[in-house]
Every structure is written in C-alpha cells, then in structure tokens.
Predict the structure.
Amino acid sequence: MVIPIDSPLCADVYALGATLFELASGGDLPFGEDGILDRVVRPSRAPRLGDDAAVDELIQAMTAVEPSARPTAADVVKMTETILQAAR
C-alpha cells in the first residue's frame, strides 16, 4: 500500500494500537463486532485490558479519539522499548 506523503501518520498509529489490542486480548476486537461503524457513530477509546498497565496505557494513547492526542510513531517506539526493558 502506498501512503501519500501528506497523509497523517496518526491513522497508522491508531491502526497499530487497535492491532495491539487484538493481540494483547487474545483476539478480541477493540470495539466489538460492529467495529468501525460503531466508532464513527459513538467515538470512544479501546477498553482497558487490565493485565499490564504500561501496555494498556500505550494502547489507550494510540487509540485516542482525537488524532492530535495520539503519540507519534517515534514516541510509540520509545514507549515500547521502555515496556520491553521493564519486562526483562
């Protein structure tokens, strides 16, 4: 897939956050079966997982309703590195 140069990366951060939620939850969809349609009608964040606070905070930040509130890709990398270092 080719992304135009002027495309905001916040959509990619959101998509990765939703994917991480699905992986961390064992396959649950972050917004139920209605998925994107439900999000458009009633914007909200992914539900909290409760297993790992740092992972939960990362996913919450990445799936923020307001795109400008989402971390940058570089911030996601830093946050992920911190989580991985703490897990060692």
Observations:
- DSSP finds four helices and no strands in the chain.
- The CA atoms of residues 12 and 73 lie 8 Å apart.
- Residues 10-24 form the longest helix (15 residues).
